[in-house]
Amino acid sequence: MKFFSCLMALLLFLLLAVPGLSLPKDTLRCVGYHGFCFHSKSCPEPFAAFGTCFRRQKTCCIDTTSNFHTCQDEGGHCVPPEIKCLQEQVGLCPHREWKCCTEV
């Protein structure tokens, strides 16, 4: 049992440490936004589609009943970081570094 635990710890370390062995970039982004990956192209209620997972093979879905709402749900729009917002708003954008603005 101790050997198995050490083997699993080593495998986990390799997955985290070696580039290319970790989760795909789109999956990490989905999980970073507290999303879930579904096999179907549409999300079940109360989830909303928020991109892809596993190299565009699955759909990233976020819970619409949680405190994590998309920018468009809150009446804003997503802009890249180089654009200055007159008024920022809380909301999720598909690109992590982008921000949610009500007015640009």
UniProtKB/TrEMBL annotation:
Q: Which UniProt keywords apply?
A: Antibiotic, Antimicrobial, Defensin, Disulfide bond, Secreted, Signal
Top-level taxonomic group: Eukaryota
Query: Which residues are in the Beta-defensin-like domain?
Result: 26-61
Extract the Pfam families matched here.
Defensin_beta (PF00711)
Where is this chain's protein located in or outside the cell? Cytoplasmic granule; Secreted
Gene Ontology CC: one annotated term: extracellular space
Q: Which residues form the signal peptide?
A: 1-22
Coiled-coil segments: none
Signal found in the keyword field: yes
A biological process term (GO) from this entry:
defense response to Gram-positive bacterium
GO terms of molecular function: CCR6 chemokine receptor binding
Q: Provide the primary localization.
A: cytoplasm
Q: Which family does it belong to?
A: Belongs to the beta-defensin family.
Q: What is this protein called?
A: Gallinacin-11
